[in-house]
Amino acid sequence: MPKTTTGLTGRWDLYQTIGGFAGTITPVASGTSQLEFKADSTVLIYNKGALVDTRQYSVRPSTAPGDSPTAKLLFYIVPGARYTPQYVEVDADQLTLKDNVADGFTYHYRRL
Fold first, then answer.
1. Given the DSSP bridges, would you call strands 33-37 and 86-91 parallel, antiparallel or unpaired?
2. Lowest-pLDDT range of 2-11, 43-52, 97-106
3. Is the C or the N end of the chain the one with fewer CB within 10 Å?
4. pTM for this structure?
5. Are 72 and 60 in contact (CB under 8 A)?
6. What angle do CA 50, 91, 49 make, to 5 degrees?
7. Are 56 and 41 in contact (CB under 8 A)?
8. What is the spatial distance between Cα 108 and Cα 69, in angstroms, rounded to a whole number?
């Protein structure tokens, strides 16, 4: 099945992070960190079940040289702040967000 951003809407539970200089793999307890993407381009951010932030988002094709033609970037839109976009892929009930920096992290989520 091809990876896509179709099906991004819904609630996602973080279960693993990978990255940093050492490439550390860290499991994350269920319910610790969740994202809920809404069809109106709003994302709700939860920590241990409590809503801690609400942001606007957009998904756009990557124009970086060497990226796959299907590569997509997730942009968080927060007035007065700049966030580095993350690569975003949805594969069935798996969401992967990858920091757009050399020593960044990859975040793996399961759909709830």
1. unpaired
2. 2-11
3. N
4. 0.89
5. yes
6. 5
7. yes
8. 22
**Amino acid (1-letter code) at residue 27:** P
- In the numeric block, the tokens 């892929």 are attached to 89
Q: Looking up tokens 């990255």, which residue turns up?
A: 19
Tokens of 61: 């094709």
Q: Which of 9, 73, 71 is nearest to 41 (CA)?
A: 9
Q: Provide the pLDDT for residue 33.
A: 97
**What SS3 state is found at 88?**
strand
Q: Tens of pLDDT along 40-69?
A: 999 999 999 999 999 999 999 998 888 888
Residue 74 CB partners (closer than 8 Å, separation 6+)? 5, 57, 58, 59, 85, 86, 87, 88, 97
Tokens of 90: 């949805």
Strand 33-37 and strand 42-47: pairing? antiparallel
